[in-house]
NTP transferase domain-containing protein
Amino acid sequence: MSAKSLASDTAMILAAGLGKRMRPLTATQPKPLVRVAGKSMIDHALDKLGSAGVSRAVVNAHYMADALEGHLELRKVAPQVVISDERDLLLETGGGMVKAAPLLPDPFFCLNSDNLWLDGPSDVFAELSQGWDPERMDALLLMVPHTRAMNYRGEGDFHLDPEGRVTRRRPGRVAPFIFTGIQLVSHRLLRDAPQGAFSTNVLWSRAIEEGRLYGISHMGLWFEVGEPSAIRPTEEWMARA
């Protein structure tokens, strides 16, 4: 898919978290700079964006922000990086998007800085763009079934109905889809948002009630890299691909 065919030319990368589960590696560096397969995790994400034709990335920064900014300033390839500064207060995922909203077009891609994945027949940003319908959707989440979620040991996050609408996993049950951390977001999702720090789950819950949270299933592989022990198996999977 050409850049003109993408739903947005801009992505937000959520990179402000403390990375507690990745300790001790994050004692001296922010989690986005942890290296997997010879490259920092945020560079994996940025390179995927550039290859897909996304020309601009807004990156929020809090924990060890100077180190993250310094690393990003050395990049000389697309996408262009703009920093949303959260040094004074960690705003979580929802609050981070709201703070960065003036820097973001409508709609915009959003992804976690520690996301690692292998594309299927088309890249994930093309997949989301092809599925996007702003008349029906406040956000479109990229999901992955358990069989394509490497290193994942949880019970899943969501169900999808035949139309692609999202509902949450019920307590004590297993849901067939895991959220990859990648989504396409309308500014409508951010309307009347809480002040300060809050999770995107607050906004998703409202969108679910209104029937405006949708999802699609990713056709490639996705890797959960939340702990140091997940790095080596992820590298082995990526080397075989």
Observations:
- The chain has one domain: 3-240.
- The chain has a mean pLDDT of 95.
